[in-house]
Amino acid sequence: MNLMQDMPQNDIIAPDKDWWRGAVIYQIYPRSFQDSNGDGIGDLAGIIHRMDHIAELGVDAIWISPFFRSPMLDFGYDVSDYRDVDPMFGSLGDFDALIARAHELGLKVLIDLVLSHTSNQHPWFQESQQNKTNAKSDWYVWADAKPDGTPPNNWLSIFGGSAWEWSGERMQYYLHNFLKEQPDLNFHNPDVQDELLSVARFWLDRGVDGFRLDTINFYVHDKDLRDNPALAPDARNATIAPEVNPYNWQDHIHDKNQPENLEFLRRLRALMEEYPAVTAVGEVGDAQYGLQIQSEYTSGGDKMHMCYSFEFLSGQAPTPERFGEVLTDYENEIGDGWACWAFSNHDVVRHASRWNLGEEARRLMAGLLLSLRGSVCLYQGEELGLTEAYVAFEDLQDPYGIRFWPKFKGRDGCRTPMPWISDNQNGGFSDNKPWLPMAVEHLSRAVGNQSKDSASILHFYRKMIGFRQSYPALTKGALELHSQSDGILSFVRTYDDQQLFCAFNMTGAALPIELPDGDWTHDKGAPFEAIINDKGVTLPPFQAYFAASAADIE
Question: Is 39 one of the catalytic residues?
Answer without folding.
Answer: no
